[in-house]
Design a protein that fits this description.
Helix content is about 65%, strand content about 10%. It contains 14 helices and nine strands. Helix 1 runs parallel beside helix 5 and helix 9 packs across helix 10. It starts with 8 loop residues before the first helix and ends with a helix. It is found in: Cell membrane; Cytoplasm, Cytoskeleton.
């Protein structure tokens, strides 16, 4: 059976990082063991230190060549020349290097096991869903065949059967239809669940990838700290070590931890090849041109499935538009969100895009079959070259390869977007100075308002000063204006325009309205916040200014 995880780029990158991490952990353990032995052998250091130098050189042969390994090589040479170190050095090494290293490695080992278990668990979910889809499909195919046989029996016996026999056959056909619809829905839901389990697995791989990368950075920092501690203690042991330590200190001072981390990032980075996700497509009995079903019957069964897909595609498209608007708001004004909100929204966008691509691929496949039945040209779609089939015994299975953003791009996209937003809006005052030019930044409140929450701004009837417009609190606060108990009419006069901007709604909803000028005085944005969601309605104001 086909393994859906075998060709996943994320999985390969994660395994490569794990192998690199294991080698680094082994090296760290070897260095810690060497330091412990040195501490124990300080009383008879001469002979013991020579052996440790050989062991350290051997350990360095199997590790990555970088700044740290080069510095440790110089440390090994220093061990050979050090003949009169005493017990104080051993105790210092034991207290400041060995003990913290053991503690950190112990914590890292537990965390690595937890990460591996999490990845394995989500991978099993993907495999389980894959197998469940295959089983559900086989079950649906068998039920469809039986249903079609019963359907033809009913059709053929209309003339010869008695009324009692007809009723009996129709009851069987009704039960068979209900069973078939239930199995079809079950198969469809399992297919739809496939993308979410795949996303969860890939997301887990991404999170674990970042966690292990952080552990590697921590380990490199630990080795660097141990090396610096080692250097400090050796420098205290008299003139006899001065000549040797000069060389060691020179090498250690050239340690560039950022260079080592950058080398690690480059070695474990994702490839330039765009990764693809493999997802099963729905395969129905009526799609097979070799079955005994007539064309009209096949068309009548395919059309409802296409309608269901079109409804889901329309809903997913609306979700995509909403998420795009949210990301545009986040990128244009960083005060509305933080890095986590942008990252979560970007993850939702990626999930929705994958769902939409899967729905469109299923719709394209069914539309192609329907077009062939209706003897018209097949529809065109970008995913037509991404759909593949393979045969397993007597069944044909269809799957689609969907292009995805690379792992690091997908994980860091939201964070970079937040960083860019921060650069565009360095402070509330500077933002106000760009958005609201002098002489055009004053506004008048037509109604008084008392703040009831921390993020609101109290207003009095009359002028609203430029300082309020420049303040971060004004840019983010919510204004509630009440005109009468039946209709809320809110109007703010911008002195530069000398025009009232009316907004109204029913008495069942309170509008929280934030006005801010964006880019120029001719473009205003109104953010209408409901109890649990918000929508950006800039088109209202644009139409107003055009009029």
């Amino acid at each position: 059976m086909r393994d859906p995880l075998a060709d996943c780029s994320y999985n390969k990158v994660y395994k490569n990082l794990k192998e690199c991490s294991q080698n680094g952990e082994n090296f760290c353990k070897q260095v810690t063991s060497i330091l412990q032995q040195r501490a124990n052998l300080e009383i008879s250091y001469a002979k013991g230190l020579q052996k440790l130098a050989l062991k350290l050189n051997k350990a360095l042969q199997n590790t990555r060549k970088n700044c740290l390994s080069s510095a440790w090589a110089w440390a090994a040479e220093g061990m050979k020349s050090t003949a009169d170190l005493h017990q104080k050095l051993g105790r210092a090494i034991e207290l400041e290097a060995i003990k913290p290293t053991h503690q950190i490695l112990s914590v890292q080992e537990k965390k690595r096991k937890s990460l591996d278990n999490e990845v394995e668990k989500t991978a099993n979910l993907v495999l389980s869903n894959w197998n469940q889809q295959i089983k559900a499909k086989k079950k649906l195919m068998v039920s469809t065949k039986k249903h079609e046989a019963l359907f033809h029996l009913v059709e053929s016996s209309r003339q010869s059967a008695t009324e009692k026999e007809k009723r009996k056959l129709l009851n069987k056909l009704k039960k068979s239809t209900e069973k078939l619809e239930k199995e079809d829905e079950n198969y469809y839901q399992k297919n739809m669940a496939g993308y979410s389990t795949r996303l969860k697995w890939e997301s887990t791989l991404g999170n674990c990838y970042q966690s292990i990368l952080e552990l590697e950075k921590e380990r490199i920092q630990l080795l660097c700290n141990n090396l610096n501690q080692y250097s400090q203690h050796i420098s205290l042991f008299g003139q006899t070590l001065t000549a040797c330590h000069t060389q060691i200190h020179c090498a250690i001072s050239k340690v560039d931890i950022e260079k080592d981390i950058q080398a690690l990032m480059e070695e474990t980075a994702t490839s330039s090849t765009e990764p693809k996700s493999e997802l099963l497509l729905t395969d129905y009995f009526e799609e097979d041109p070799n079955n005994a079903m007539n064309k009209e019957r096949r068309k009548s069964l395919i059309k409802p499935k296409l309608s269901r897909l079109e409804r889901d595609i329309e809903k997913a498209s609306r979700d995509k538009e909403g998420l795009e608007r949210m990301l545009n708001v986040y990128s244009s004004n960083s005060s509305f969100s933080d890095a986590k909100s942008q990252k979560d929204t970007a993850a939702l966008m990626d999930e929705n895009n994958l769902k939409l691509d899967l729905l469109q691929a299923n719709s394209y496949k069914l539309s192609s079959v329907l077009a062939e039945l209706e003897q018209r040209p097949k529809p065109s779609h970008p995913c037509s070259n991404c759909i593949f089939k393979w045969k397993e015994k007597e069944h044909m299975h269809s799957y689609v390869k969907l292009s995805r953003p690379t792992l690091t791009k997908r994980l860091e996209n939201a964070v970079s977007r937040a960083s860019a937003g921060g650069q565009n809006h360095p402070s509330s005052s500077s933002a106000a100075s760009v958005v609201a030019p002098p002489g055009k930044s004053l506004g008048k409140a037509l109604y008084s308002f008392q703040a009831r929450q921390d993020d609101e701004l109290s207003l009095v009837k009359g002028m609203l000063s430029r300082q309020f417009l420049k303040s971060n609190k004004f840019m983010r606060s919510s204004f509630k204006f009440v005109n009468n108990p039946h209709t809320y009419n809110t109007r703010i006069n911008y002195l530069s325009e000398q025009k009232p901007i009316p907004f109204s709604t029913s008495n069942s909803v309170e509008y929280l309205i934030v006005f801010s000028s964006m880019l120029s005085v001719s473009e205003y944005t109104c953010l209408v916040c409901f109890p649990s969601w918000c929508a950006l309605e800039s088109s209202i104001l644009k139409k107003y200014h055009k009029s």
